[in-house]
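Retry 2 of 3 after timeout on previous attempt. Resubmitting structure tokens to design endpoint.
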């Protein structure tokens, strides 16, 4: 396979955001190249792999080839051990993906629609002519190459170097970074039909521990914490303490460390000839840290606007802003409210978290939704309750 000299669109990063953008743009007639730094699409997996069935089926027909488990509810655990179950009939079903196969699936669809994909291709700089972005420089294996394009999609994840190279401000505040580690643990006793979330300022300061079952006796067990709140302990130490208590017979199949940008969408996610998508644009849910369903939506919007730009031959920031505008309307504005709630929720003392669990257990199971949970947690803040109601209804 040979890389051509020019593509309408070059996507940097073959994660779900990049692949979804590429798929949509290719479906709409653009010539697209995906450049992925890693050797293989989907590997390594740095994700707990949970997504709501609703978020998934908006775009893809569920396939057991890349789904490892179906989820019927979520159990929340307060610091004192009190638990409360949110059932699927109230909050919707979920699935735990096999991301290494799911990411490949989206790329495969993009390829079937004409996109080209090159792995082992690390983009290290932008090509410019008279100050105008017109392509990328990348290392393919050890060979330096370059490719020209009218439009770059920076879908290069949380660390996004490409956005910075284009002069966009991608700075993350320390309080918006969740340091995370995760084990894939086997030999563990779990209720496989539920996701389990553990809260508490001692066990997971500024975040939570998750147990996302991938099947019988096997789960992604991870932690996300706020670096500025963790009193000297790191995420791995805290997770190891939890695992030693809860899953002492667990056997490690894999381990990784990563970070989740629990921020709001960047102020600027487009400039002339470039668009930022996915974690690079900070499009995750700031409370849960879940990004998958959001980045699929963002990728779809970005891909449509990118293809339109190709048709109109207009790659100006002014035109590309259309993507930002649609994104804010669909999810970005809700994300702002969730961000405010995150600030409040993850500052609650354990006593308050225990009280919330008690209150939630008084709500009939079929009525216990995410909205009810958030409302119960912020009931003393009428302004926020009002904003929340606006966003849910
Ligand atoms: C610990 C953890 C647990 C999570 N759990 C969940 C969960 O359960 N559910 C959920 O919805 N979300 C979860 N997330 C968030 C989710 O993984 C991300 O939101 C999602 O992967 C973002 O997709 P993306 O395509 O924007 O970025 P990524 O998936 O990070 O993909 C970016 C791609 O760009 C490539 N790349 C980077 N730089 C370059 C370069 N210079 N040149 C070429 N390629 C490059 C990378 O190799 C990578 O493949 C979790 C995140 C973490 C860290």
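Retry 2 succeeded. Sequence:
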């Amino acid at each position: 396979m040979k890389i051509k000299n020019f593509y309408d669109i070059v996507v940097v990063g073959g994660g779900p955001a990049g692949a979804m953008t590429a798929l949509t743009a290719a479906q709409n007639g653009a010539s697209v190249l995906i450049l992925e730094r890693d050797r293989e699409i989907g590997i390594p997996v740095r994700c707990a792999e949970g997504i709501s069935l609703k978020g998934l089926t908006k775009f893809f027909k569920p396939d057991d080839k890349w789904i490892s488990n179906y989820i019927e509810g979520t159990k929340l655990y307060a610091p004192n051990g009190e638990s409360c179950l949110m059932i699927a009939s109230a909050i919707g079903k979920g699935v735990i993906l096999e991301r290494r196969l799911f990411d490949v699936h989206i790329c495969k669809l993009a390829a079937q629609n004409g996109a080209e994909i090159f792995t082992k291709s690390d983009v290290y700089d932008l090509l410019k002519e008279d100050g105008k972005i017109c392509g990328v420089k990348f290392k393919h294996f050890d060979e330096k190459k370059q490719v020209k394009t009218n439009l770059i999609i920076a879908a290069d994840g949380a660390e996004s170097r490409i956005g910075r190279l284009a002069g966009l401000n991608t700075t993350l505040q320390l309080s918006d970074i969740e340091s995370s580690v995760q084990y894939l643990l086997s030999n563990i006793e779990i209720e496989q039909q539920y996701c389990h979330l553990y809260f508490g300022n001692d066990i997971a300061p500024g975040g939570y521990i998750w147990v996302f079952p991938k099947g019988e006796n096997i789960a992604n067990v991870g932690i996300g914490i706020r670096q500025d709140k963790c009193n000297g302990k790191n995420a791995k130490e805290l997770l190891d303490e939890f695992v030693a208590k809860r899953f002492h017979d667990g056997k490690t199949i894999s381990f990784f460390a990563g970070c989740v940008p629990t921020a709001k969408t960047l102020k600027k996610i487009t400039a002339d000839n470039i668009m930022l998508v996915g974690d690079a644009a900070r499009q995750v849910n700031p409370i849960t840290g879940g990004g998958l369903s959001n980045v699929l939506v963002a990728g779809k919007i970005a891909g449509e606007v990118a293809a339109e730009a190709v048709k109109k031959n207009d790659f100006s920031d002014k035109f590309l802003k259309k993507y930002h505008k649609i994104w804010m309307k669909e999810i970005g504005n809700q994300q702002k409210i969730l961000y405010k709630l995150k600030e409040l929720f993850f500052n609650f003392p354990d006593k308050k978290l225990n009280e919330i669990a008690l209150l939630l257990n008084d709500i009939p199971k079929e009525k216990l939704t995410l909205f009810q949970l958030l409302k119960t947690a912020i009931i003393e803040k009428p302004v926020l309750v009002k904003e929340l109601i606006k966003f849910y209804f």
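Attempt log closed. Residues 327 and 333 are 8 Å apart (CA to CA).
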